[in-house]
Amino acid sequence: MAEAIQKKLKAEVEKYSQMQKDVSKSMASRQKLETQLTENNIVKEEMDLLDSTNTVYKLIGPVLVKQDLDEAKATVAKRLEYINGEIQRYETLLKDMEKKSDQHREVLSSLQQEFQKAQGLAVGKV
Amino acid sequence: MAEKGKMDLEHLGGVVRLREEHEKVVKDCESRIQHWKKVSGDYEALKDRLETLPDQLSYDIMVPFGPLAFMPGKLVHTNEVTVLLGDNWFSKCSAKQAQKIVDHRMSYVTSEIDDLSKTMKNFEARVGLAKDLETMSTTKGEYVEIREDTGNSDTAATKGKQRVAHKPNSKPKLDAVLDLEEEDEENEENEENRNGGSIKGIMSKEELWARLDELEKLEELQDERDRLPDNADINGEDTSSSSSEEEKEGDAAPPVNGLSLKPSWSSVPHSKAPPSGDIKEDDEEEEGSCLPTIYFSHTVEPKKVRINTGKNTTLKFSERKEQKEHSKRKKKNGHNGHSHHELHKITTPADIYRLFVDVKNGEPIPRKSILKSRSRENSVCSDTSESSAADFEERRMIGRSFSHDEATHSDTSDGITEEDSPTTVPLHPASRFEAFSGTVVEKDPMPSAVPHLTIAPPALPTILERKQEEVTPDVAPPQQPPKRVSKFKAARLQHK
C-alpha cells in the first residue's frame, strides 16, 4: 500500500519538477523577449532620429548589409509586433502552466498525506 | 510556553528570511544602478568625444593592433561614425546625429536608474521594517508587541449571531408556551370559578383572567357575527344549543361504535394541558349562549379536507385535541366566557407544534413526535381504512392510552381533572364513564374519534357534529360533501 503510493508520489513529483522546469524555461524566454522588446524599441526610436541621408546596415553574420532606412524601419516595426505577440503567447502559456502546477501541487499534497497515513498504518501494524 | 517559544523561533526565522530576501533585492538594485551609472558615464565620455571629434579634419592616433601592439595611424572622416542601434542594426551618421542618439540613450539610462533607485528605496524600507520586527521579537526592549491570540475561531467573524436551526425535539419557545399555559390556566380558572371551586391556586390572577375573558367574549361575539352568514348552512344541523349538541354527541356516538362520547368527557381534564382546544370551546360557549351554529362550518371543513386526503397528518393530535376540545367544550358549554387566544397564535406551521405541548409536572414539554404517533395511526388507518375496523380500534386504543398517560400527567400537574369533569357531567349524558379508568374511557372515544382524525385544533368543536353526521351518514348535511364518506366512515359502517 505504502509502496504503491510512494511510486505514485515519485511519478507525480517527477512530473511536477518537469513542469517547474518548463515554467522556468518559458519564464526565461519571456524575459529574453522582454529585453529584445526594449532593445527594438530603442532602435525604432533612434531610427526616427535619422533621416534619409543616413545609411542603415544590418549585420548579418559577418557582413554589414546595407538597407534602406524605410525598409529598416518597417522591419523593426514588424519585429516589434512579432515580439509583442510572442510575449503574449508566453503569458498565456505561463498562466496555463501555473494552473497545471497548482493542480499538481494539490495532487502532490494529497498523495503525501496518503503516503504518510499509509506509513503510519504500516508502522502501527508492525 | 515551549510551543510559544517554538512559534517565536519560526516567526523569527521567517522574519530573518524576509529581511535577507529584501536585502538581496536591495543589493541587486544597487549593483544594477552601479552598472547603469557606469554606462551613463561611458555615454557621457562618448558624448564629449563626439562633440570634439569633428573639430579637426584628421587626428594622429595610435591604433590598437591586437591586444599587444599599437600602430601609428590617422583618424579621418571625423564627422562620420557608424552607430550600433541595437539588434544588429547599424547606421552611418554624422557626429551630431550620433550625439542625438547618445542623448536618447542617456535619457533611457537615467530613467532606468531612477526606476532602480525607487525600487531600492522601497526595499530598503522593507528591510528596515524586517529588522525592526526582528529586534522586536528577539529583544523585548523598547518595543512591546501587542499580541492577541484569536484561537481557533469556531465562531467565525460573522455579522450578528449565528443562526441555529430549531431542533425537532427542542422545547417550544418559552414565551409562546407560557402564553398557552396562561390561557390554559385561564380556562381552568374560569371553569373552576364557574364550578364554584378553584382547584388551582391561581386565584391571584383571577381578576386578570376575568378581564381577559370579557375581552375575549367581545371578540368572539364579533367573530360570530362575522361568521354568521357562513355558518348558516351548517346551522341546520348544529343549530341546537350546545347542550343539545352534547346530548346528541352522547346519543349519536353510541350507535355508531357502541361507544359513547363519554370518554371524551373523562379526558376533559387532559385537554387542559394542551391549550389548543380553547378557541373552539369559546366559540361553542358563545354559541350556546348566543349563536350556537357559527363555528361548526369552520371546523367541519378542515376535517373533511384531511379525511379526503387520506393523509394521516396530525391524526393523533387532532384526535386528541378533538377529545380534549370535546371535553372542554362540554365544560364550557356549561360555563360562559373563554379565551380564544390560541386562534391568533396559529399563524405559522411552527405554531402547531406549540399547540401540541404536554404539561408535565407544570413544565411544558414539547410533544416528542407528532409524526411518530401519527405514523402509528397512519399505519392503522391504512389498514383499517376499509377492512379491519376492529384492529383499527385496537390500535387506536393503544395510541389513546399513550395520549391518556400524557394527559393524566398534565392533569395531575394542573390539579384540575376529574373533579371538573363530574361537575360538567350533568350536562352530558356520558357522565357515567368518568368512573372508569382513563384508559377505558379513551377506548370508547376512539372509535368515535376515528372519523375525525384529521380535525385541526381550531376545528375541534365539530366533533359532535361529525358524530351526528356519521350516525346519520346518509343524511349528511349539505356542507359535508362526499368527502365525509371517507374510509373511516366505510370502516365504521362495516363495523356496524
UniProtKB/TrEMBL annotation, chain A:
SUPFAM superfamilies according to UniProt: Prefoldin
GO terms, molecular function: protein-folding chaperone binding; unfolded protein binding
Alphabetical GO biological process terms: chaperone-mediated protein complex assembly; protein folding
Gene Ontology CC entries for this record: cytoplasm; prefoldin complex
Coiled coil: 80-114
UniProt entry keywords in alphabetical sequence: Chaperone, Coiled coil
InterPro entries: PFD_beta-like, Prefoldin
Any one Pfam family match given in the protein's UniProt record, by short name: Prefoldin_2
Similarity annotation: Belongs to the prefoldin subunit beta family.
UniProt subunit comment: Heterohexamer of two PFD-alpha type and four PFD-beta type subunits. Component of the PAQosome complex which is responsible for the biogenesis of several protein complexes and which consists of R2TP complex members RUVBL1, RUVBL2, RPAP3 and PIH1D1, URI complex members PFDN2, PFDN6, PDRG1, UXT and URI1 as well as ASDURF, POLR2E and DNAAF10/WDR92.
Function: Binds specifically to cytosolic chaperonin (c-CPN) and transfers target proteins to it. Binds to nascent polypeptide chain and promotes folding in an environment in which there are many competing pathways for nonnative proteins.
Protein's UniProt name: Prefoldin subunit 6
Record organism: Scomber scombrus (Atlantic mackerel)
From TrEMBL, chain B:
Cited CDD domains: Prefoldin_URI1
One biological process term in Gene Ontology: negative regulation of transcription by RNA polymerase II
Recorded GO CC terms: dendrite; mitochondrion; nucleus
Entries under SUPFAM superfamilies matching the protein: Prefoldin
Predominant subcellular localization, coarse grouping: other
Alphabetized UniProt keyword annotations: Cell projection, Cytoplasm, Mitochondrion, Nucleus, Phosphoprotein, Protein phosphatase inhibitor, Repressor, Transcription, Transcription regulation
GO molecular function list: chromatin binding; protein phosphatase inhibitor activity; transcription corepressor activity
Polar residues bias locations: 378-388
Localization, UniProt: Cell projection, Dendrite; Cytoplasm; Mitochondrion; Nucleus
Domain of life: Eukaryota
Family designation: Belongs to the RNA polymerase II subunit 5-mediating protein family.
Assembly mode: Homodimer. Component of the PAQosome complex which is responsible for the biogenesis of several protein complexes and which consists of R2TP complex members RUVBL1, RUVBL2, RPAP3 and PIH1D1, URI complex members PFDN2, PFDN6, PDRG1, UXT and URI1 as well as ASDURF, POLR2E and DNAAF10/WDR92. Interacts with POLR2E/RPB5, RUVBL2 and RUVBL1. Interacts with PFDN2, PFDN4 and STAP1; the interactions are phosphorylation-dependent and occur in a growth-dependent manner in the mitochondrion. Interacts with UXT.
Descriptive protein name: Protein phosphatase 1 regulatory subunit 19
Organism: Scomber scombrus (Atlantic mackerel)
